[in-house]
Amino acid sequence: MTRTHIPKILLCGTGDTKADELLYMAERIRSAGGDPVMLDVSVLGDPPYRPEYDKHAVASAISTTIEAIARSGDENTAMELMARGASVLVRDLEASGRIDAFIAIGGTMGTDLALDIALALPIGVPKFIVSTIAYSHLIPPERIAPDLMMILWAGGLYGLNDTCKAVLSQASGAVVGAALTTAKPRPNLPTVAISSLGTSCLSYMKTLRPELEKRGYEVVIFHTTGMGGRALESLAADNRFVAVLDFSLQEVANHLNGSVVSSGVDRLENAGRAGIPQIVAPGAVDMVDFPTWKPVPQGLSDRPYHAHNRLLASVTTGKDGRRHVARAISEKLALATGPVAFILPAGGIEQWDQEGEPLHEPDALAAFSDEMRRVIKAPVELHEIRGHINSAEFTTTALAIFDRWTASGVIAPGIRQEQPS
User: Fold this and answer.
1) Bond into 339 cis (ω within 30)
2) pLDDT (0 to 100) of residue 1
3) Residue 416 in this model has a pLDDT that exceeds 90
4) Residue 311: which of 288, 293, 337 has the closest Cα?
5) Beta strands in 251-304 (DSSP E)
6) How many whole angstroms separate alpha carbon 22 and alpha carbon 172?
7) Pairing of strands 8-13, 287-291
8) At what angle do helices 362-375 and 319-333 cross, to 10 degrees?
9) In degrees, to the nearest 5, what angle opens at C-alpha 276 toward C-alphas 273 and 281?
10) Which residues contact 41 (CB under 8 A, 6 or more apart)?
């Protein structure tokens, strides 16, 4: 089969200091079947090549000059301004069809800028960062685009060598391949988000997904182990859902307790700010996650413990900790500009809190439930059930609220698929 489309790959970096690396990547992109489009984000120097979009174009995108950016204060303020300009410019390039994918290379400075550009691009546009801090906890979750790909720039801080060429060539080929094969989300498809953990902990999606699909909705389920919740929040902020069924809020508890398994400070806030209808439940908020290979967090060493695998373990919080989480949930829901219903399963909120399981603590669960009853205020609807969050009573209650809101026009209707004759 003859390929006719040659994807345009926006290649971003500081050409005054990383020209060798950028020119090598451009050559690798061409050899893989792509067309490199150079974006220079240097401030003080100039690259030894002519980029399609230079530093003056970046500054102009936010109605300033490169000279003004250079005089703005220090390297941090200058690169923040360059990040703003580059984000505006790149968003416009993608919207007008002039680029198909984005790749950047950098240390901490270049990565900082590239993260903003990646966030400016919609999901489905391939975005890749070659970074000296790939996968580092220096990068807060709210800075990471939902479909961002990263690779460690190993051995390449200054100049080319065989080790860093192996990395740069992989990245260059990967972004071209992604641009050629990506299937972008269909526009205007009514999509419902559901948050959950693996089915060994929370299993309601087994029932909810087919039921919502029967009603004509695309269902997207987010695994709430840090970045899953971040993806949900990012897409909700972009108004990509007709409804959010946020039933796994463990990342809220994690963030409050200083866990690295965090989705950021704004978890459970962006759908509400966007006015998206939300049905919410407190799935797994009794647990605090931490890496299995690290010590139990300070202050929780005497709490019930569950090792999920060699990467992820959990301990429970006590009565006071759960009341604290309940108040945080209510404060976040009070920020919503759209309708919110909260389902309180008095029978339990994750698989391992049931009788006979390692995290069974009925008194602490009762304290959480009592606090939720106290703090949930109108216009948030409170729906209490006697059953567990993994029970049929829970999914029936959630679907009843969803159907009522659909019938009244609160949730946009689904698109019924034609049945084969």
Assistant:
1) no
2) 39
3) no
4) 293
5) 278-283, 287-291
6) 10
7) unpaired
8) 30
9) 95
10) 12, 13, 14, 55, 58, 79, 82, 86, 110, 113
Q: Model confidence over 343-396: pLDDT tens digits?
A: 999 999 999 999 999 899 999 999 999 999 999 999 999 999 999 999 999 999
**Rounded distance, CA 404 to CA 397, Å?**
11
Please give the sequence-ordered ranges of beta strands (E in DSSP) within 243-332, or none if there are none: 243-248, 278-283, 287-291, 305-307, 312-316
Residue carrying the six token digits 């990506």: 182
Share of the chain above pLDDT 70, in %: 98
Q: For residue 67, how many other CB atoms are within 10 A of its CB?
A: 11
Please state, rounded to an integer, the average pLDDT across all residues of the chain.
94
Q: Which among 139, 114, 140 has a CA at the least distance from the CA of 127?
A: 114
Higher pLDDT, residue 193 or 5: 193
Task: Measure the N-to-C terminal CA separation of the chain; round to a whole number of Å.
Answer: 34
Please give the structure tokens belonging to residue 58.
């970046």
Whether 165 and 207 have beta carbons less than 8 Å apart is answered as: no
Tell me if residue 287 falls in helix, strand or coil: strand
